[in-house]
Amino acid sequence: MALTKVLLISADPDFASTVIGRWQKESILPDFVTLGDATASDSVLATCDIAIIGPASSDSLVAILRTLDTAGRPAICLVPDSATASTLRQANAQVIVLCEHEGWVDNLVTLASEVLHRIETTGRASRAEQSLAEAQQGAILGRYMLDMRHSLNNALTSILGNSELLLLEPGALSPEHRDQVSTMHSMALRIHEILLRFTALEQEIKPYSQSHDEIPLPSQSMIQTSPPRPELAGDEAARPAHGSRVS
Question: Hey, what CATH topology would domain 5-101 get?
């Protein structure tokens, strides 16, 4: 869990020390930033995880709550009486209002801890959904590549067959053209090796996917190990054209 940032804002200098002193009893301590009600800048307010506002002037309180609402930051506001609490709730429905009564500091810390826990839980859920969406996109792309490998093998079989025939005929090519065909042949073999790795990946994940809902990542050894020269396979493979020449 990342360290959370809690702003303690009040015109009363003892407010922050009272809240922090009580919070020391909790197992997890956030990063506290204390501000006076007149020194709470918009940039600082927008970067907190939660703002706890103690006694403050009316004008400062209105400006602080407006900035927090714009930034989408949760706020807990401590007020002296129920009448003030009712007025504040009507004007700021998103603000959690707590009356200052006996034991208020315990209630305040407990409430703030629950809000921070909810924020962390929501964040984890959002990150998990994003990771799942990215994994699903990768799985779709991987499945498409596996489905297309047979067609690619057919095309590569034709390229490899024709290039091998040309390379086996003495004097059929000039030295320059022979080098070009040899390069094409080598690159086609490399592509074929990559396709074989996809086939090996499919064989590795097939037993797992039959009993699980997710596809595991390929092992490092399978990714790094280059297979031997592939066999030219495929019932629908295009046959090499014996009369092909490079001009």
Answer: Rossmann fold (3.40.50)
